[in-house]
Amino acid sequence: MFEKQQNPQSLLTLLTDFGDRDVYVGVMKGTIAQINPKLKVVDLTHQIPPQNIAAARFCLMDAYLYFPVGTVHVAVVDPGVGGKRRAIAVEFAHGFLIGPDNGLFSGVLSQSPAIAAVELTNPHYWRTPNPSSTFHGRDIFAPVGAHLACGVPLGQLGRQINPESLVKLEIAECTQSRNMITGCIQYIDHFGNLVSNIPGAYVQTKSWGVLVGDKIIPGRETYADGKIGDAIALVGSHGWVELAINTGNARSQLQMNLGDTIQVVIDSD
């Protein structure tokens, strides 16, 4: 059952892989301003690597808790635009998610499950009833986000769908044994730090390291805990175990990539 949005004007965020060279982000903001020029819009990032749904998934998951309840998050990393993938809006405990149904919301929803979801089938809330087949960010997602942020109830935006039917991005699960935790690299940031899907809580109060090849990279507290150029393991500000190089690039130096297996070794002594 849908509930009417309580806040008549919420905050709206934008996350895309559009970059800042072209006008794509600007015209999305223009369509939002046409609906309500006073609506507060925050750019999470527009530097997601092109078509990298996994990176978008992580960044949105890492960001949503820092915004007020009721915030509308419009995320557009959409290699399937114009195809059969659904355009959706999702209500969850902290606000709303709007974008393509391709798995980019699965990180957020793994932490805060969907309350309700709709497919965006009501063109009344689009920029035009004849949207571009290649720019749903401008013609559907941005205007729908603006209307939702201004108080339009979720149920008016389209037909109700089962939240369980939403696409989930498949990422290897973190598994534990007595002295070993196995996960994978779920994100690589601008600095080349390798962020795993192993929660930092798993290594708190323990002596630990990360096995890379035949070497164990020791667990530390900060990026500076080691010599310049040394590899270190630590729990980042996002709360996940990561690998880094003191003033260097872990991706390049360790030759690891998105999806690669990572193993944390717990000292049993």
Describe the structure.
By secondary structure, the chain is of the alpha+beta class. It has 2 domains: 12-165, Rossmann fold, CATH 3.40.50; 175-266, Bacterial fluorinating enzyme like (Elongation Factor Tu (Ef-tu), domain 3). Helix content is 18%, strand content 30%. It has helices spanning 24-35, 53-63, 106-111, 136-149, 250-254, and strands at 12-16, 41-45, 71-76, 87-92, 95-100, 114-119, 159-161, 175-176, 180-188, 194-199, 208-212, 215-218, 231-235, 240-245, 261-266. Strands 8, 9, 10, 11, 12, 13, 14 and 15 form an 8-stranded antiparallel beta sheet that branches. It has a 7-stranded mixed beta sheet with strand order 2-1-3-5-4-6-7, with helices on both faces.
